[in-house]
């Protein structure tokens, strides 16, 4: 080993020190994050250390590798949680040695998740699953069934909940949640629905969550271009007509990186989509053209393909096709206009047509190095090879092809239609013809179609309307649209007006438009349970909107409410409009709801009849339509019904629709626009002028059930679900999570306490979170020996306001004393206090650090009464998840008591003071986001009485049923349910 002389070594040290001083010019100072965590930001590079530590869940997926690579190149330390050793190998070289750290984790194991995020200042959640777990043999039941812990619900909702709770617990500065386009808790697709519920969970626990909704992505590992190019026989169910804005995966990676350095993106929602809208068929056309091959696309009816896909998913080792893929083929991408996009991040997204050569070159069997057309002009000229017919002839030919199955009764007519289709196909595949040749092709096609039309007119079994139905149902047989045929949609048996007698059509939605339908109480249930209750698939017997007992329990129940016409549960303004509609000459009034006709038909009629509302039609969603058609969603059912109404009463000049849901409002407006276009451009029957359509958005008035009854009804739903075998999610249980135990303050006294606040005038009030509702005893479920010191659940105590204090103008509290001297009490802090407000980034438990208290003026001193109780929330979850969480939290109560008694001061009497201030309590994020339930709630029988539930639960913050005109007496102050 060669050593340098001392002088040379000192010279090297000087050079290194000088180099370091020079490098400091690139440092943009020490940055302090909003949570107080310092980071050193330097100029990025492969060998630099940027100061950020990022955890990327889902890094081994198609998108994850791009964000890991970009962050590592900027000098960030990247923590990669992984499940399989072989899946993470390619990420090791993304950064310098030690910059990419791997931690093995399990999404069901809270400890492994917390270990992955505890050192980070930003967390990315890219986890997603687009197919359910395969059927496996379970040891405990010795049967083959789907494992619930790997279903989409557990990954997208419960998994998200565990990650976000860990983020909140360790004060992570940023959380970026990658969801999906069309994320909506009410979607018919389980993937989109669970993604929507996952967004709600993330925002509830961590309000500053950045939500990212990427469109279908294309790249080297995509499921779009590679699937279309690599499969010779591709099975579809919707003729590849679904439309979306495909986005380049590299552009999404750029956006995710920018969000790390831009704090203004916190709390925002981003819709990341490409610049152009495509159907899958159009993308398949690009793929075939690029690889010089023609892939075969076989269309199979959804009713056949979806069960077959689910069967394949059970049997095959790899998910070649899943039922969710089939369901998503019927859902077009809908972009939220209020969300931000690439443009807000300064990124210009690339179009998929610019990258097909780059990604598909390897699929060619010849002409490997032939480049695609270089200019846009050449692209336009090249597209002329694919389209040799004008739009009008193309429409006629497509109508002829679609009419083949409708006219199968006539062999001669079928031959004519096939001839037209053959001419059409030949015209699309030949080289670009000259103008005379193109005219000749068009003449041949029109001649074939005209011959088929003449035969159809003379055939008794076939109507010409069948040939003209290609653009939609509005071109159907006029004889099928009659008042008699329309009456099959209605529950009422009276005769409808004749077709020419109706000039205006008025449609009234039922739930939360006309009637104040109770919603699940967000103060009772956690976010994932709120989503499950609203979903039709969470319970084997149907959820909140599919259980007739829920609607029957409105107010004080069917028996008491029907005689008084559900007084106070109506939107009286809409009721008055409905009455005017029924009295207006020439109008057709309709009550329309997506509730199931089979379960709710009688109840909805009784509710409307009790109010004296006499509609021409009352229509609920049937199991099958009048023509035995099935409806994939409520919107599909309503649009089919509206089209039948407008075709039957084609002389009507206006239609008004009253609707409360914003998505349905937009859906109806788009539907009316498309319908009018078809109505004006059709050939048979004769075109009609556009009907004036107006969709009136109605602001819903939120109401809830009596909390005790609501808990009982949900318990009944759980019991019925378990009795039916557990369904897809397995057996469910109703569990309780306690946030804290304390002296709970009434709402009126809480408002008086908040009136003492003195907030600096220059502070943004939107950054404040107000409390003032309790004096802390224990930051979770209180052990019995500590609860006994406070007097036990339900004990009342009166307190007097003494002084005000604040901590660095970020937290405000009021110090209190028992109003009665020598009263024994117990609080979590050395000084009894009520936290009034906290600023963003501060934590309520920091109130113990307040040292300076300002006495309250004598005129502002008052006394208030409290009751010892618990602040808790309920959840419905699978038995497996509940038992796993209980196992992870064994001994938690004991550690809060005897084993960790040093954190709790002893019971004190009024007037006693400690000799020196206690140290601040250690951070207890479980107070805000507890990880596991503490106890189960509800009887195990199939019937749960109000008395049984009331004995176990008494509610305060959850409140009585929200009915404007009446109050109810409920026992209070044993267990208080609220959302955090």
UniProtKB/TrEMBL annotation:
Q: Which domain of life is it from?
A: Eukaryota
Ranges of residues in domain NmrA-like: 53-307
Protein name (database record): Nadh-ubiquinone oxidoreductase 40 kDa subunit
Keyword S-adenosyl-L-methionine listed: no
Does the keyword Iron feature in the UniProt annotation? no
The record's Gene Ontology cellular component field reads:
mitochondrion
Q: Which residues form the Swiss Army Knife RNA repair protein HAD domain?
A: 517-723
Q: Which UniProt keywords apply?
A: Ubiquinone
Return the annotated region ranges for Disordered: 879-980
What CDD domains is this protein classified in? Answer: NDUFA9_like_SDR_a
GO molecular function (one): protein-containing complex binding
Biased composition (Basic and acidic residues) is annotated at 923-934
Q: Where is the composition biased (Low complexity)?
A: 938-953, 962-980
